[in-house]
Amino acid sequence: MELGRIFAFMGLLSQFQRIDRQIMRHGEDRLENDAEHSYQLAMAAWYINDSEQLGLDASRLVRYALAHDLVEVYAGDTFAYASAEERASKETREAAAAERIAREFPEFSDLHAIIHEYESRANREARFVYALDKLLPVISIYLDEGRTWHLNGVTLQMIRDHKTEKIALSPEVEPYFAELVSVLESQPSLFPRKLDGAS
Fold this sequence. Notes:
199 residues; 10 helices
């Protein structure tokens, strides 16, 4: 492989580090980026699988987690509570981004297979990482005392509505979400208060 190809791939990864998510970094006055999130997801997936002896393929878990948001280099991050129009275009934007990455790095066939398997929820590992990807931001915001929820007007019901069905794809992750919702229910100060007269 020519050194120039490594330069090109490092450039892609540098762009990935510049994609901000809509979640404040715990204890910092800045948003987390996709690279930080993907590393956190990879480590958490590996940790839970090993500690709970789930029997999932750890190498596959880590690769799914590291690659799962790479398409956002070209598609951008779509906030879970974005407009209906933005959420509706997410799948199309991300599919086009995956095709662009495949064109730019045809030599990295394993990456393209991993992205496809993850997006199609092809196996237990893909579904586990997908569900965990929906759970971890809730935990991160909880640890940051709900700051992101307050900034964006997110309620516990919105979290339930957006996350429950997706997390249910993985029976390994689903119990953690149920327990977390119970914790959140006991701490209403984590969420913005309704305005007087709001329904």
